[in-house]
# Entry
Amino acid sequence: MDGNAKHDLEHTAEKTVVVSEKSTKIFARIFGRFMKRATRYYNKHFSSSMKALRSDGPTKELYVSPPLTRAEAKQIITACRENNVLMGIKKMDPNGEQGRNQSLHKQEKLAKNEIKYHKWDDRRKTFKKIPVIHNLCKSMADRYKNLSIKDEQDNLDERYVLIFNKSKLSFLNEQLEKIPPNRVKQHAQNELVDINKDGVIDERDYEPLQPRGMNLKVSDLSKVGEDFGSCAVRDYLSNYCTQRITKEQYCEIREQLFELRSHGACVYNDNEMIIAIPSEDLQEYKTFAPLDRPIKEYGANGARDIETESNSNDIIELEINNFDDYKLFKEKYDSKDFVAQHMPDGKTTVLVKETDTKELVENSKKKSKTADLVKEADEFAEKNNPIEKVLDKDEEPEIAR
# Structure
């Protein structure tokens, strides 16, 4: 190979390497941007709404709306979608919504008929000069509006709180200002429901709505009996836990409580709050709860069977020393009533009905006997299975041959 050809080959190879390196850098830059956008889109639409909300402004501070009806929550969800505003939602019920920390995608499913109504109604207005399309859009808008109204009527008792980043507080206030006038109209037409569920429909059900900051001060917790959670403590009736903590401790963990499926938080006295959570969330709650105070857990009937005076002679006390043993206890007493006290040292004291314990023992014996009978039947079948004997006879001549 002559010198010129060798030089050209080396030059071509160097150029190829340089181009390859540039292409790799460009691809990496484009792919990196794509991944950032994809991650941002995922976090906004499909990850935990609380995680996305904290990242939705210059500060991570959040605000919570007062209780809203399903219809009111749907209206605000629709407005958020139209204005590209991020929000979170919590159903005010001990069982929470279907799944915790709902993503924006799941939240919008709650208002899907309302959103579709607005879409078709906007199209109706756009094509008002084209009768065929206009009528089609009107028909579809009417259909989704009726579905939305039916959904609201079927769920009149449901209440929700909405969560926004502080940066969207002006938008939230703007939406909340629209609600009281509408409630006043409903009240005049005898259509207003008991918004605050205090047993009477009065001016407190249509008073101006003010959001609360997620970060509270002890001075904000002055009124004994006032609720601050995603639902009222009194709404917890079965399979739940309570803990009395100081007001200072509550202020420290308030935001994390909204990560749970639901929680109640009520001013107990001048110095303390009482917290209520679903039993299923106990282990998660313990990751941030003050563990210097006991936690009480209530069984299938909220310990009403245990605390009834007529049952006082039927109660026995169990002491459980570790969490694994307590898990076994819970599995067996899943459908029974009990009250357990989880102490800071890791021990748990449980009160149960003796009759329930005897019933479980008897059922366990029956299951054991049933299992033994099944085992004996299987062994008998193996020894005396006529099908196997026929197969054996059919196979013997083949083996002989």
